[in-house]
Amino acid sequence: MQSYDTIFGELFLAVQTSGIFEDSKTFVDMKPRFAAEVILEQFNSKSNEAGFDLKSFVLEHFEMPEQSS
After folding, report:
1. What is the radius of gyration, based on Cα positions, of the chain?
2. How far apart are CA 47 and CA 23, in angstroms?
3. What is the pTM for the complete model shown?
4. Most buried one in 12, 20, 36, 43, CB count within 10 A?
């Protein structure tokens, strides 16, 4: 199985360096809602738009991991 940095490239780097999640492991524990190709295509087309919100984009395209108690 490929790692998220290999699969999601620029998106992975953007998420990990942005600090949108307190724990750097959060993103890699998230489950994609769509095929990686679809997510990356949308990221590449939207990320340069004015007002692009990375966290909203990630939450729209990935499911948060379940919290263990």
Report:
1. 12
2. 22
3. 0.90
4. 43
